[in-house]
Design brief:
single chain; 129 residues; alpha+beta; five-stranded antiparallel beta sheet; 2 helices; globular
């Protein structure tokens, strides 16, 4: 179990301790092994600073984005989704994704999932810049 309060605190601490980091993200791992939580799916939480735009490179696995807090525009390829809290969208594999925190005053928080663990196990994981 990964309580959101603890995850949010960790993201905020990373942002405060490392202001130079462009991407403030935590990866959910198995505390006993340090490996991915599941063999097929990877889970992550991401914080966007106020007004921040973050470009994620094109990767082989599709991605799912779920807004926990804030107003976020998600642009996978040529599509655009303006998402409020509790909204979810998907991005296909091999598409770059632009994330924009639409609030200039408060951070936004997203939960993400993808099939990176499976792609790595199969030897097909790719990142394209």
């Amino acid at each position: 179990r990964y309580a959101w309060k603890a995850v949010k605190t960790a993201l905020e601490a990373l942002a405060n301790d490392f202001p130079e980091l462009e991407c403030i993200q935590v990866t959910y791992t198995n505390p006993q092994t340090g490996a991915d939580v599941e063999n097929i799916l990877g889970f992550y939480s991401l914080m966007l600073r106020p007004g921040q735009m973050l470009r994620l490179p094109a990767r082989s696995p599709a991605q799912v984005f779920h807004v926990i807090e804030g107003l976020v525009q998600v642009e996978p390829g040529q599509s655009k989704f303006l998402m409020n809290e509790a909204d979810t969208c998907c991005a296909p594999g091999y598409e770059p994704v632009l994330l924009t925190n639409m609030n200039p005053h408060d951070p936004a928080f997203l939960f993400m999932a993808d099939e990176s663990p499976l792609h790595r196990k199969l030897g097909v994981y790719e990142i394209r810049n």
